[in-house]
Structures are given as C-alpha cells and as structure tokens.
Write a structure and sequence with these properties.
heterodimer, A: alpha/beta, Rossmann fold, 7-stranded mixed beta sheet, 6-stranded parallel beta sheet, B: 516 residues, alpha/beta, 6-stranded mixed beta sheet, 9% strand
Chain lengths: 717, 516
C-alpha cells in the first residue's frame, strides 16, 4: 500500500454535474478521466505523477463500479503498450508516467502505437519533471511527441483548463486517430484548486465487448508495407485532422491586449508564471488582463500555422516563452513565418535563457528585455528596488555566504538500505575501493555524503547493466552493482541479472529488497510482502534470480545485521565461484513500516498489552565529538548538539527522539570499534508483574551501590 | 477576461497603471516530514473560510526524504474578487522580491529563503524558528562543522521587513506538539495576514487532528511572536563543588585566585573534572600545572590570557582521559540513569532498560590494569591470545541488569589502581611534553603557543579514532619548530580534521613547505 493514502480524497470522484470539486491537480485529472468515459487506466509511478497512481489505486472500487479496469503496469513500456487496446476498438484509455525517464522506457511501444494509430482515444499523462526539485536528467517530452507524431497537450495550470484538456484530448485523439500526451509539470500536479464537475460516464463500448467480438486490421500493424502507409496517413490525414480539430475547438487561446504591435506566445503550462511576470512589470492585472496580446498554446505539438500567421499579423515582434531546450517551438515558428513570408521578428531564447526552469524572476527579466527593445516607455515607470533595499539584501547575502549548506534528500531514519552501504564502507577498509554501478531508487542517495559510494547510474533496473563492460579475466577485482526491488522487476531481472548470467560476469549485484517501490511513494510490487487485495504480491526475488540462471544467490533477511552483511559482501567479492554473485538484501522500508506498525503499537499500548519500544542514545560525557558514527550511518535521527561540558568545544553526537531503534548505531559501534557512548534504551509499556518485581529487586541493589559511588561523584551530569 | 478561439480577437481595453489588486504571497520552507504541507493546508482552509480564493502547490518529489522543500501559497481577498469578478490568475512559484510572508521551520532554511531572494526588506515578514536541524555536511565533520547561527540570524534581521524569530521547535516540544502548530501561531502573532486569532484557531479545530496540543503550541507561539526576535543562548550551567566537599571548594577558591579572571570558569570546571576523574590530589596536580602556565603567560602573554584558558581547558580534558575505568564509572552512575530516563521521556509505569555497546580491546585492557599485569597481557603469548579471543567481538552489556551493572561496577572500582597503570604513566608524560612545548613556543611566538595548546584537541576518541588523532598530533608537533606562524598551525590543525586518512594534512604540510 502506498505511503500516502487518498481514501478520503477519492470520495470527491463521485461528485456529479454542477458540483464543485476542490483538491489537487492529480485528483482532478482522475475525475476528468472518469468524466471522459475511459475504459481502462494504467501507469507506472514516479514523481510527479506517483500520486496519480496512488489515487487510482485508492479509487479502485469507484473505477470498478464504472467498469474501468486499473492496471499497475510493470513499467512505462507496459503502460504505453496497454494503449494497444484502443487500436482496434473504440475504447478510451489513459496511462501515466514520469517524463522524460518514463517516456524513454515507453518509447518503443509509443512509437509502434503512434505508427499504426488508434481508434479509441488514447492518452498518456506525463508528469514533466523539469526544473526545481527534479530528480532526473533535464530533457523535454516534446522531442518524443515530435519524433513519433503524438500530439502534445500542455494546458494552462489551473484545474478547469486541465480537466477540459483531458476531455478534449480524447476527442482530438479520436478525430485524428493519434495518441495524445498530456503534459503536467510538478507544481500543476500538486496545485490545489477547484472546478465545476460533470457526471462520470460509463463507457458505452466496454472491454467485455472487445474481448467477445475481437477485431483485427493488418494495416494497423507495423510491418511493411503498412508501415509506409502509416507515415503517409500521419502526414496526409491524421496531422491535418488534428490541426482542424484544434482550430475548430479553440484549444489554443488568444487573449487580446491594447499594445498589439507585439505579442507573447507561450506554452500553456507557462501561463500563470508569465502573467505574474507581466503583473510585476505593470503590464497585466491580477485577473489575467494583459496589455499585450497573448497566444497560449494548450497544444504545443502540432503547431497550427494559420493561427501563428494570424496572430503575427500587424506585429513587429513576438516573444516565445518555451521552457527547456532545444527550442523546438521557436525553430518551427521561424519556419512557419518564413514560409508565409510574415516579417514579424521572432524572439525567444535570445531574450530568455536557453536552459533551466522559467521561474517568475527569469520571465520578468526576459519580458523586460523584450519590452525594453520595442516599448521601453511601457515599463519605464516600474519601480526598481531602492538602493537601501539592495544594500540590505547584499549585506544579508554577504553575511550568510557559505553558511547555507545543501540539503539533498537522504536515507530516512532507520532506513534498512543504510546498513548495506555501511557494510560496503567497512569492507572497503580491508578490500579497498571497488567500481560501483548504481541504479534508480532511494539507494542512489549512497552517492552523497556520508557514504560517497557509486560511480554511475544508467537508468531504472540498469545497475547491473551499467557494470557489464567490467567483465575481464585480467583482474580478480569485481565491480559491484546496486539495484532496488523496483528496478529489478521493472526490467533489471533481464537487463542486469539475465545479462550478467548470459555473459558469464563475475560481478556482484546487490538487490535491495525493501518490500515496496519505495522512492516513488511505497507502492506495492511483485515481491512486496504485504497482502494486496487487487494485486499478486509475495513473489520472492531470489526465486526469480535463480530462474534467470544465477547460482550464487544469497538472501539476507536482516540488513541491520552488519556482521552478516559485511561477511556476505566480502564472500561475494572474493569467492572463486563463477557467474554473477547476487545478494538480495531484505528488510522492510522503515518509512512504510513505521506507517504500518505505529498505529498498531499505539493501540496495543492503549489496550494494556506489554510492548517494548527501543531507541538509541549517546552519552554526552563519553562522546568526544569525532562523529565517526555519523560518517558511517548518516541517519537523520543521529545528529550533533552543543557539548554540555563547559570545557569541550566540539559538539557531541546526539540521538533525537525520532529514533526508531533499528539497531544500526550499535552494530556500527561494534563493527567499526568506535566508542562506548552508544546505548540502547528499551522502554517497556504495561510491564508485567514479573517485570515489575525484577525492576524492584535490581533497583534496590543497584540503587544502594549507586549511592555508595555517589560519594565520590563530583560533576553532576 | 475569458479565453477566445483565434477567429475573434478584438483588443480589450485595460486600464494602464491603475491601482492593482494583489494576491497575498506566502512561501513555506521546511524539510520533509516537518508538516510544511499541513501548515500550507491550514492557511488555505482558513483563507477559504474567510471567502478568499486560495491556491497552494509544492515540489515534494524526493524532497520528502529529508530534503529541503518549499510550499507556495497565494490568497486573493474577497472584497477585491467581488461576486461577478473573474477568477484571479495565481502564480505557482514565488518571485524574488515579491513575497509577503516567508515561514521557515529552521534557521538555515531562513538563510536559504534569503539566498533565493524571496525575503526582502521592503516587503517580507519573515517568520522563522531559530532552532537548527544540522545538515549532513555539518554533522560529519571530525570536529565542529556547524555553521554560524549568529550570521544566519543577523542576515534575517537585515533581509526581512519584519522578523519574528524564536525557537519554535523547543516551544512545540514543551507543549507536546509539532513545529507546524508553532509556526501557525507565530504567523498569527505576526499579524501579517488579514485574519483574526480566532480564525486561525478555528482552522486547527476543524482539522480535527491533535487539536488540544496544537492549540496549546499555537497559543504559546502567538504570545511569543510579539516579543523581539532573538537566538536562545545555549544551555550551559557551570558546575560547582558538592556542598559537602569543603576541601574541593577551597581548592577551587585558591585556583581561581591564582589565575586571571578570564580563566576562572575554565579552571573551576577543570578542577571538578580532574577531581571527579581521580581524586583531590590529582586536581591539585592540575592546578599546579596550570599555575606554571600562568607564569609563562605573564612573561609572554598578550593580555588576553588565552594561553592560560586554553591550556587549562585541554589539560583538564587530557588528564580526564577516557579509559575503561572512566567509561564504566560514567555508565553506571545514578545521575546517568536519570538522564537517560529523561532523554527517552520515560513515563510513570514504564520500565527502562539500558544496554551499552562496548568493545574493549586488548590494548585498552592492558593499559588500564597495573602496569606489570598490563605488560604481561601484552607480551606473553597465551595471555594475550586469551584476552584477544575474549574481546574479538563487541559486547552488549545491560547496565540496568544486576549482572551487567556489577561487571561495570567492578571495573569502576579499580580507580585507586589507576595510578599504577601503563596508560597513566603514558598520559602524564604526554601532557608534560605538551606543556613543555607550549611553554617553549610561548617564548618564541605567543599566538603560536595558543595554537599549539589547541592541538591537544586532535587526540580524542577511542580505538582507531584515538590512534589517528595521536598520529596527526605527533606529525604536527614534529614540524612545529619550522611552523612560521599561528595561522599556518591553525591551517594544519584544520587539515588534520578534514579527513580520516591524514591526506589533507599531508597536502597542507606540503603547501606550507613543511618536511614531514
């Protein structure tokens, strides 16, 4: 079950005609899908659309009521291939994934789907993870739309427009027999807003109808000569049909303005920020009334030539606000205007930065450059910050120069993956450093302090694949690769493990099995141990690995057991056994475990059951402030505190109350022979009579001895 | 204005330069798991209750995993919105120089807000907690890697139009609540938003989760918000002699009289520490050693008496070295049991068990016992093998059990034998050499002597850490004669604490042309 529950929120999916929906963007998209009468939905989790998958999962009953099938796809490729259901049948379907990483994986199926075309509306909702807070390479989904001729919707980031574009997107898809991509950026996915609902629609043609009356059309299959036909169809039929639909339905929007010899063209997703930037230049009011005409592309591919020509009529210049690179739209607009012999100057990346997120400040500066060139008088009165304001800001910045450190994400308190890297650090001490190939997932945090482990990451499930070349008989040194259970099932089983078996690699593959697709929000996967009413869980990774032909496979069921972990790792790195050495390191994701067991424990305590809670601590009077323990662990609950000893300057290590008692601290101080400062406190709730009797006896004896000792004790702690 | 398809696009009249209605812009900077989302939701709910249009968004992603994250909220007042007015266009991210209220859950996050340009003196009310949640880079330092709180705080006072700053984490803790409730209270107290205290409180009540403690923290924070902002002073109480120890009180009095005023606090702490470590005689020995440095300071000092202060500090720490006896004693004291109970917030009816993670090694054991026995353990093969076998792995000792307690009690009771141990002799010689070097150096260069005194801090910890410190200390002392200035020595000392392998120290020595 996922980290965040939407059980309450999904009730708003039942809202009917005229009722007002209030909530997050992703929930609104789900509601829009139901209003559009989808027959099936699927996808693969990953920010920013993880919550869309979580919403769908929590809404499964509602979906089932409407006859909608929900699929937790094995990968984005699976998700895109799922849309094949819309090729031969008038079934509407939608899948979702993170982009561009998910689109990369999906692109095989996507290209085949786009080539043959669709009958029913087929939509991919892609969470565009670009700019601040992004966890992936900085690329654009736009390129995929162009290369496969898939229409790209980029709605203005407010709920009514997004919801409308979902509905219109299906119609566009059907009108042009082409799949569409709906691009939503991180902030739009999480934006809280409202829109007026319509009733949900039960699909008129169902999956049952399709299965009972199968259809085929060999011309929809990518094999010559049909593949040549597809290209012809794309250019001669589907593209013109799409352009016509976009125009007829006014999917792109023009907002008029009185200063009409210039204009601004923007991707729909840029709209709110662009309007704010104009407002700051006193060129728009709070309601979106701008003095300059705006052409807002809710569809960024294909572009509509006629609309550009019309918008540019009588304009000296336009500025294109297009986030990301390369500047596909700007290049296309130049071609469009040259072909039509329109002399309007086209600005874009010459006034706005080529790369990076288009934030309000970036746009304000770009707009100022544009108006400075064409209408300097319009913005001349906009006040600049007063000198004393600037001075104070500068003084403040000087003061904190070097004082603000980065705070990258890291392993959570009690994370079971941490001891795996601690073990690697300890093994490093006697076997030296190794080449380490990383994967995608929480475990990639190992590349950051305090562990600093890992050289490359090539993609989800590709940890082992990334070490494939390091397969030589000339050294006994092995490469280590790391993969999560999510990546393993996504494709690592074949791309990393199968590949290593087949190519007789001697490398070590560590599969981190924490029971969830943890980094994306704790969704269940095949090897999850929790029972899931709508999914088949409990399929052990070791069984799958052995099925691929690996023979040296060890499953460790307690990653916190540092001794066994280091011994196994050392063994894997030195054993003469041939073939890949696969270690399945298994302990439940602590974030999800705590979420699961905390209420259970609280209830047990309340019910009067004997419960023991453990947490760790550090004695400040024996801690000398070297912090080796932190360097080998990095747990958020392990921190520093001012030294209570007036003589000492260095801060002491301190365990804060968020400690979940995972035990790693104690293991580390033993394994690395650190210091005697760590202690484990066991707090017994609802002690039994025997507990209390034991405590009384020892308190009496120990108390007597302690009082004797106290005579010589001088510094009260 | 409504959107229109392209065919009809007449320019609409707008009113240039007219007084603009403006949304209220609020940014919340927090770390994953601190309730930044809850706080943002509260603000939205409160605003909606008051008829505002409200929008919030965030960039959670992997930031949930302990990273820094930012929530952004815009509120649009109802009187401006009117009944027929169209929806305002609200932004999804803060623009530098344009944010009305910034809430930060921690002092470095406030600094981050300033760096992002969203706290400006002409506009922004900055509401920040002054507590610190240390960044990884601060925590992993071999010594003190913490950034300068005072600098961060000063930057807050410079950059903000209005500053509300106090330790909201501590306040929340005192009231059994979480920091989001304290921030909400401080926001209410700042009066930066057009809502009454009751609007805030009603929102918490409607939320329905942990209402009573949230309201308590909210109320306390509301009161605190009107006070002048400030950093809370670190909580350090000077220890004093127990009432029944007249002998010790006399020693402290005479020691304090013998040193300059600047060194009094340190020597008092030093006397107490050395007496606690061993006995009154040891404390007298300590005072005598410090007094000799007073004479050196008189001859070569610069009037700041830093030499006396630092020598008194590190001498006390050096003399109270952490051997197995000391550790055992500290672990089993009643005061320590009480401290642990407090730290884990033991409640009535609960029972506490404490287990220690100890890993004494042959070397440490041999150094602790009387020297002849120690040498026997180290040099006679069978004895050595026996001890090594018994100490090959770490021990978990439950000090709250009779067995565990008695084991450590027996070790602690070896204290009178300590003077006859190998470690004792070694430590005293080591300290005397250090004192001699400091005194000699003072004659040459006073500031360099102070730095030399500080070098003793390199030797700390246990096991490998202790060995590493000793090696670094020895390497530096070996080249001391060639070190030209205090600044260079400070650089070497910093380099010795920059990594665990001494590589940085090697680099620094090469940089300063010092032959190893």
């Amino acid at each position: 079950m996922a980290e965040r529950s939407f059980k309450e929120e999904v009730q708003s999916l039942y809202l009917g005609e005229g009722e007002v929906f209030r909530g997050e963007g992703i929930l609104a998209i789900t509601k829009a899908l139901l209003q559009a009468g989808v027959s099936y939905v699927g996808g693969y989790q990953g920010a920013p659309i993880s919550h869309l998958m979580d919403v769908l999962s929590d809404a499964n009953d509602i979906l089932a009521d409407l006859g909608v099938h929900f699929e937790s796809s094995a990968s984005e490729a699976t998700a895109a291939a799922t849309l094949a259901a819309s090729v031969n049948y008038p079934l509407r379907g939608a899948v979702t994934f993170k982009s561009t990483v998910g689109t990369n994986v999906a692109s095989d199926a996507l290209a085949n789907l786009a080539s043959g075309g669709v009958t029913g509306g087929a939509m991919m909702i892609v969470g565009e993870d670009y700019g601040e807070g992004s966890s992936i390479m900085q690329e654009r989904s736009h390129a995929f739309a162009m290369k496969s001729q898939v229409w790209l919707l980029d709605p203005r980031p407010n709920l009514p427009t997004i919801v409308n574009m979902v509905e219109k997107g299906f119609e566009l898809s059907e009108a042009s027999n082409t799949p569409v991509m709906l691009e939503v950026r991180i902030r739009a996915c999480h934006v809280y807003g409202s829109f007026v609902c319509k009733d949900n629609v039960r699909p008129s043609f169902t999956l049952k109808d399709a299965l009972e009356n199968p259809r085929r059309d060999v011309n929809r299959i990518v094999l010559p000569p049909a593949s040549y036909l597809h290209e012809k169809e794309k250019l001669e039929t589907r593209w013109p049909a799409a352009v016509k639909f976009i125009q007829d339905n006014g999917l792109n929007e023009v907002f008029a303005g009185d200063v009409d010899d210039v204009g601004i063209v923007m991707q729909g997703g840029m709209y709110n920020t662009a309007l704010r930037a104009l407002e700051l230049l006193d060129l728009a009011d709070a309601y979106g009334n701008a003095r300059v005409p705006l052409y807002v592309l809710n569809v960024t591919y294909p572009l509509v030539d006629a609309e550009f020509v019309k918008f540019c009529a009588g304009k000296k210049a336009i500025l294109i606000v297009e986030e990301g690179q390369p500047e596909f739209i700007e290049q296309a607009v130049n071609t469009i205007l040259r072909r039509a012999d329109v002399q309007t100057r086209v600005h874009g990346k010459d006034m706005l930065p080529m790369g990076g997120e288009y934030t309000g400040g970036v746009m304000r500066d770009g707009f100022a450059r544009f108006f400075g060139k064409y209408h300097a008088g319009l913005i001349a009165h906009v006040p600049k910050p007063a000198p004393e304001v600037k001075d104070r800001v500068k003084a403040a910045l000087d003061r904190i120069d070097g004082q603000v450190h980065g705070r990258p994400p890291s392993f959570c308190t009690g994370c079971p993956e941490r001891p795996i890297f601690t073990a690697m650090k300890l093994v490093e001490r006697d076997l030296g450093t190794h080449h380490v190939s990383c994967d995608i997932g929480c475990h990639l945090f190992s590349i950051l302090p305090p562990f600093n482990i890992g050289a490359t990451t090539m993609g989800y499930g590709l940890g082992g694949a990334g070490a494939a070349a390091f397969n030589t008989k000339e050294t006994s040194k092995r490469a280590i690769s790391i993969m999560g259970d999510g990546g393993f099932w996504h494709n690592g089983i074949a791309s990393s493990v199968g590949n290593a078996v087949f190519n007789k690699s001697d490398n070590v593959i560590i599969v981190v099995d924490n029971g969830y697709s943890a980094a994306t929000g704790g969704q269940d996967i095949l090897s999850s141990s929790a029972a899931n009413p709508i999914r088949a869980t409990g399929n052990p990774i070791e069984k799958a690995v052995r099925g691929m032909g690996a023979t040296w496979v060890k499953t460790l069921t307690n990653t916190y057991d540092l001794k066994t972990m280091t011994a196994t790792l050392r063994d894997a790195l030195t054993t003469p056994a041939k073939g890949p050495k696969v270690i399945v390191a298994q302990s439940e994701c602590m974030l999800n475990k705590q979420r699961r067991v905390k209420p259970q424990i609280a209830k047990a305590v309340k019910d009067g059951k004997r419960m023991v809670r453990q947490r760790f601590g550090v004695d400040a009077d024996t801690c000398t402030g070297d912090h080796s323990c932190i360097r080998l662990s990095g747990c958020p609950s392990l921190t520093v505190a001012p030294n209570p000893d007036p003589l000492r300057k260095d801060p002491v290590t301190q365990v804060i109350n968020s400690c979940v008692g995972c035990g790693l601290c104690g293991e580390v101080s033993h394994a690395a022979v650190l210091c005697p400062s760590f202690f484990r406190a066991s707090i017994i709730d609802n002690p039994t009579g025997w507990d209390r009797f034991k405590a009384r006896v020892r308190d009496r004896v120990i108390g007597w001895l302690q009082r004797r000792m106290a005579r010589d004790e001088i510094v009260a702690a | 204005m409504t959107a229109q398809p392209l065919p009809t696009a007449p320019p609409a009249p707008t009113v240039p330069g007219a007084a603009r209605e403006r949304s209220i812009r609020i940014a919340v900077l927090a770390m994953g798991g601190e309730g930044g989302g809850v706080l943002a939701d509260w603000i939205v709910k409160m605003a909606e209750r008051a008829g505002h249009r409200a929008q919030t968004t965030s960039v959670p992603g992997v930031a949930q995993r302990t990273g820094a994250t930012i929530y952004y909220i815009e509120l649009f007042p109802p009187k401006a919105a009117g009944s027929n007015a169209p929806d305002p266009v609200l932004a999804l991210m803060p623009v530098p120089g344009d944010v009305d209220v910034v809430l930060a859950s921690e002092l470095m996050e406030a600094g981050r807000a300033i760096q992002r340009g969203i706290v400006t003196p002409d506009r922004t009310t900055l509401v920040t907690s002054t507590n610190r949640v240390f960044a990884m880079t601060e925590k992993i330092a071999l010594g003190d890697g913490r950034v300068d709180d005072a600098a961060l705080f000063e930057a807050c006072t410079l950059a903000a139009n209005r500053l509300v700053a106090f330790d909201m984490a501590a306040l929340a803790e005192r009231n059994g609540s979480v920091i989001s409730a304290a921030l909400f209270g401080a926001l209410a107290g700042s009066r930066a938003l057009p809502f009454a205290r009751s609007d805030f409180e009603e929102t918490i009540r409607e939320g329905g989760v942990g209402v009573a403690p949230s309201l308590r923290a909210f109320g306390a924070s509301f009161e605190e918000a009107v006070k002048p902002p400030g950093l809370s002073a670190p909580d350090r109480t000077m220890p004093s002699a127990p009432a029944d120890r007249q002998d010790l009180a006399h020693l402290i009095a005479s020691a304090e009289a013998a040193v300059p005023a600047a060194a009094r606090e340190v020597i008092r702490a030093g006397v107490l520490k050395t007496a606690d470590h061993q006995d009154l005689a040891y404390a007298r020995d300590y005072v005598a050693r410090v007094e000799r440095m007073v004479a050196v300071d008189r001859a070569h000092g610069d009037g700041s008496h830093r030499l006396v202060v630092e020598v008194a500090r590190y001498l006390a720490l050096g003399m109270a070295y952490e051997d197995t006896i000391r550790v055992a004693e500290l672990k089993i004291r009643a005061s320590r049991f009480r401290r642990v109970a407090e730290e884990v917030r033991l409640k009535d009816g609960q029972i506490l068990e404490i287990a220690e993670f100890l890993h004494p090694r042959l070397q440490e054991i041999a150094e602790t016992v009387p020297a002849p026995l120690g040498r026997f353990l180290l040099n006679v093969r069978w004895a050595r093998n026996m001890v090594e076998a018994a100490t090959s792995s770490g021990k978990v000792v439950t000090t709250t059990s009779l067995r565990g307690f008695l084991m450590l009690y027996a070790v602690a009771r070896m204290k009178p034998l300590r003077r006859r141990s190998m470690r004792w002799a070694e430590e005293q010689a080591h300290l005397d050499r250090w004192l001699a070097v400091v005194a000699e150096t003072a004659a040459r260069d006073h500031d360099l002597a102070v730095e030399t005194a500080e070098c003793l801090n390199l030797v700390k910890g246990y096991g490998d850490t202790h060995m590493r410190g000793k090696t670094n200390y020895a390497r530096i002392l070996a080249v001391l004669a060639q070190v030209p200035s205090a600044a260079v020595l400070a650089d070497l000392r910093k380099a010795a604490l920059a990594d665990e392998h001494g590589n940085k120290l090697t680099e620094a020595m090469a940089r300063h042309g010092l032959a190893p």
